[in-house]
Design a protein that fits this description.
GMP Synthetase, Chain A, domain 3
Length: about 90
Amino acid sequence: METAIVNDELVTRIERALDSVRPYLAADGGNVKILEITDDKTVRLELMGSCGSCPMSAMTFKGGLEEAILKAVPEIKKVEAINITPAF
């Protein structure tokens, strides 16, 4: 039961961090959602809308999403996106 409470609080803090980046994603027709927070404190994200197929998604992920989460929620050890499009 306690794990669910901790995860709910983590999700809330991660969502707040993502909310700081979402207006920039939305301006380009994209968004992001949390898929999972693992026991080893890895957050798995899915890039949605145009972000899922954008060649700049790796930069958006590293410089925006990952940075925002790690800064706002220091107990998170790693952030992964399941669908980053490689830049050409």
